């Protein structure tokens, strides 16, 4: 795979339109409301029991509101709210575990991946974290393989002195720190104050404890950011040398996300400045030795993501880029999403809806989507483009027993403008994204998306 990213701001501006991030296909906007859990039970009944498991637990609580945030969260300083939520969470886990055959003495597939997200997972006390992980390990069998992936999202402001040590003892081997930006004026504008020294301290501690992989999240396009100010943040990031970096585009959608109304639009960088920040960021990180994985993600060449991409084994799902795409993903907690075989299943997005369903002894399912054969084909094509920048027609033919070039012909024709602009190449053997098309791979994916033209583009963030 060619990892060289070509920068052409004029082309990027021309193609910079809203589109999905394709953590699933069909995307979440296609999920259909449910008023019972019958279809989720059916998904478990049809599940291939040989498939390993990936568990995602959503901890929605945050002590502070970050103005840029569009996540499903509950902002509160009342730590007593965690205890009843954990009881509901355990109830949901028991119910789903039973559907896997756990109450019938049958063999349960191993857990190869665990992720705690939010919200702020360390809103939970150390005792609650220990109790929750102990419960999971008593309920499921966890893989002891070296490539097992047990991760947690960390707000550096919400770490107690012994929490990182505890997390390592509990078996977590990967961390993701939310940093976003290190400049005080930017932090002030988004209500996320965390001194650089705090970041240095938690990074150093994680290294000493032996976490296998450390990710840092950054955001470009925040208020008061400039190329020069973000460059200072990059100086520190390159010095700290995290294994992975996620550099996300801030999408200002105050009509959808109430906290964003506290951000003054006039303080945001212009579209041109925002592009300049991104271009400089890519230049700096690749010069520092990071491999551009795609969709805002960078990794050191020896990181598992980069190695999987080089080997053609990278996947993408609701966890983002992953090396465990062969797992069934079980989501637990308010708003979490499961992917079981050809079913996508989303939990209730409100706490009241979530707890009410469990009180009625139902699974807290809110929406679902069952993937069709056409969806399967297009999902494979989109995944290959996002992960490996090319699609091999013969591989699609063999997997689905079709003539993929004929089957996908209308989608291939939609790529004509990108072909003419030198962003994509189509040959008799497949489709490939060229160097200057890498940043616009989402646009290429949209050509294969049979749903996107049914929706207003405002439902998605822009590609860049």
From TrEMBL:
Domain of life where this protein originates: Bacteria
SMART domains, per the entry: Elp3 (SM00729)
Cofactor requirements of the protein: [4Fe-4S] cluster
Molecular functions per Gene Ontology: coproporphyrinogen dehydrogenase activity
Enzyme Commission identifier(s): 1.3.98.3
Subcellular location: Cytoplasm
Domain Radical SAM core: 47-288
Pfam annotation, one family: Radical_SAM
Spans traversing the lipid bilayer: none
Catalytic activity: coproporphyrinogen III + 2 S-adenosyl-L-methionine = protoporphyrinogen IX + 2 5'-deoxyadenosine + 2 L-methionine + 2 CO2
Pathway recorded for this protein: Porphyrin-containing compound metabolism; protoporphyrin-IX biosynthesis; protoporphyrinogen-IX from coproporphyrinogen-III (AdoMet route): step 1/1
Record's cofactor remark: Binds 1 [4Fe-4S] cluster. The cluster is coordinated with 3 cysteines and an exchangeable S-adenosyl-L-methionine.
InterPro entries linked: Coprogen_oxidase_HemN, Coproporphyrinogen-III_oxidase, Elp3/MiaA/NifB-like_rSAM, HemN_C, rSAM, rSAM_horseshoe, rSAM_sf
Keywords: 4Fe-4S, Cytoplasm, Iron, Iron-sulfur, Metal-binding, Oxidoreductase, Porphyrin biosynthesis, S-adenosyl-L-methionine
Subunit-level organization: Monomer.
Role description: Involved in the heme biosynthesis. Catalyzes the anaerobic oxidative decarboxylation of propionate groups of rings A and B of coproporphyrinogen III to yield the vinyl groups in protoporphyrinogen IX.
Family: Belongs to the anaerobic coproporphyrinogen-III oxidase family.
Protein name as catalogued: Coproporphyrinogen-III oxidase
């Amino acid at each position: 795979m060619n990892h060289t990213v070509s920068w052409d701001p004029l082309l990027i501006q021309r193609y910079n339109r809203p589109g999905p991030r394709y953590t699933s296909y069909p995307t979440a906007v296609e999920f259909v409301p449910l008023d019972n859990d019958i279809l989720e039970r059916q998904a478990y009944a049809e599940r291939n029991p040989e498939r390993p498991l990936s568990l995602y637990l959503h901890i929605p609580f945050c002590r502070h509101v970050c103005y840029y945030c569009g996540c499903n969260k509950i902002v509160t300083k009342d730590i007593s709210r965690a205890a009843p939520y954990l009881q509901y969470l355990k109830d949901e886990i028991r119910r789903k575990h039973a559907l896997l055959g756990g109450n019938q003495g049958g063999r349960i597939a191993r857990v190869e991946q665990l992720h705690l997200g939010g919200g702020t997972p360390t809103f939970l006390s150390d005792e609650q974290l220990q109790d929750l992980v102990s419960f999971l390990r008593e309920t499921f069998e966890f893989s002891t393989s070296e490539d097992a992936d047990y991760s947690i999202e960390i707000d550096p402001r919400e770490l107690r002195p012994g929490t990182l040590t505890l997390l390592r003892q509990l078996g977590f081997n990967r961390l993701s720190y939310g940093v976003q930006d290190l400049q005080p004026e930017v932090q002030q504008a988004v209500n996320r104050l965390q001194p650089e020294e705090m970041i240095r301290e938690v990074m150093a501690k994680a290294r000493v404890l032996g976490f296998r992989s450390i990710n840092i999240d950054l955001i470009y396009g925040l208020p008061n950011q400039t190329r020069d100010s973000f460059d200072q943040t990059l100086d520190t990031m390159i010095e700290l040398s995290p294994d992975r970096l996620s550099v996300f585009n801030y999408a200002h959608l105050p009509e959808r996300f109430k906290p964003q109304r506290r951000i003054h639009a006039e303080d945001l960088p212009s579209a041109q400045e925002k592009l300049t920040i991104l271009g400089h960021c890519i230049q700096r990180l690749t010069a520092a030795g990071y491999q551009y994985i795609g969709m805002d993600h960078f990794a050191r060449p020896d990181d598992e993501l980069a190695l999987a991409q080089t080997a053609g084994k990278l996947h993408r799902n609701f966890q983002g880029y992953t090396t465990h795409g062969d797992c069934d993903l079980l989501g637990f907690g308010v708003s979490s999403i499961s992917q079981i075989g050809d079913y996508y299943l989303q939990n209730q997005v409100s706490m009241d809806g979530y707890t009410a369903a469990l009180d009625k002894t139902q699974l807290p399912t809110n929406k679902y989507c069952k993937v069709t054969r056409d969806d399967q084909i297009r999902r494979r094509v989109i995944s290959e483009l996002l992960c490996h920048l090319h699609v091999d027609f013969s591989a699609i033919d063999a997997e689905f027993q079709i003539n993929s070039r004929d089957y996908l012909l209308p989608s291939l024709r939609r790529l004509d403008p990108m072909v003419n602009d030198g962003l994509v190449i189509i040959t008799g053997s497949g489709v490939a994204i060229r160097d200057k098309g890498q940043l616009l791979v989402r646009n290429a994916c949209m050509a294969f998306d049979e749903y996107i033209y049914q929706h207003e583009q405002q439902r998605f963030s822009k590609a860049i």
